[in-house]
Batch of 2 targets.
Target 1
Amino acid sequence: MSTLSRVGLIGLGCLVALGLAACGSEEDGEGELMAPGKACLACHGPAAGNHEAAEHALGFAGTIYESRAGEQPAEGVLVVVEDVTGQLFEVGSNRVGNFFVERPVPTPMMVEVRDGDRVLRMESPAPSGDCNACHSAAGGAGRLTRP
Ligand code: HEC
Ligand code: HEC
């Protein structure tokens, strides 16, 4: 099957699912609003066994909070990633604090988080795009926060 027709089929699958309100329905915490704080690529990564989620492969993804300790999501924070080939990605966090890119992103990647002029930079290259795997309340690096 050619790449083009495969892309077409995935698009069609999503449209059909939308008709059934199963493809990222906005109000019930599915799709882009799902699982804030969880390790997204555990399901959406290349190695994940979850077939339904793997159709929505994410290159990097995570969740940003207003503070390390609280539950309040931070909306409108910019996440800037430069992948190992030098390609730049910029995505904003949504109203549950989630951000993500819906395409593969080669690792390692250089990462920073911006809010206007304020910047928080990860000094070491991120070895994976599964930001919440390290950045969680329990994880060693602590939650991602608004700069
Ligand atoms: C436990 C597994 C699991 C985790 C963890 C998970 N997802 Fe998903 N995700 C799925 C499945 C299954 C689907 C497809 C069905 C659906 O849309 O709910 C999906 C769908 C999506 C979609 C596609 C929706 C659309 O409209 O096309 C996005 C975007 C998404 N997830 C983002 C995320 C983000 C961001 C995180 C982390 C904060 C995350 N997911 C964590 C399983 C997961
Ligand atoms: C393998 C674990 C790991 C992964 C994956 C990871 N990080 Fe980090 N991150 C860390 C550690 C450890 C630090 C602190 C040391 C450093 O800056 O290198 C850090 C620091 C940061 C900082 C600076 C925080 C501050 O308060 O100064 C930001 C911003 C950041 N990471 C964003 C991200 C984003 C966005 C992703 C996903 C694209 C990500 N990280 C993926 C481990 C990780």
Target 2
Amino acid sequence: MGGDHLGGFHAIQEYFQQKVCRHCSRHFEQGGIELLRQEPGVLVVRVTCQACGQPLGVAIVGTTPKAEKQKPRCNSEWTKKDKSRLAKLPKITYDDVLSAHQFFRELGSDWAKHLPTTS
Ligand SMILES: [Zn+2]
């Protein structure tokens, strides 16, 4: 059971490795995709282009498809709990959180299809 999150992170890495950097048009590499934090049903990852060093942003990714249906995370207002939880992260600034919002919009909802099916 504990391997689900790790599997989800690998799927996220694979997802971003299919994307290209908007600054240098090279594919993101596995080493540029960091797992910042992991909690039940949620992974926080930071994606940085290893070719030119430009950060793509921080993504907060839900890894529980069932929970996501009941409580969509994309484009929804963040709760106080979410903000305070993220406030504990030393490396993420509020600007990062804002860019994560925009980032999510680009992700759309199809990222979930890259995740392993657990149900
Ligand atoms: Zn780049």
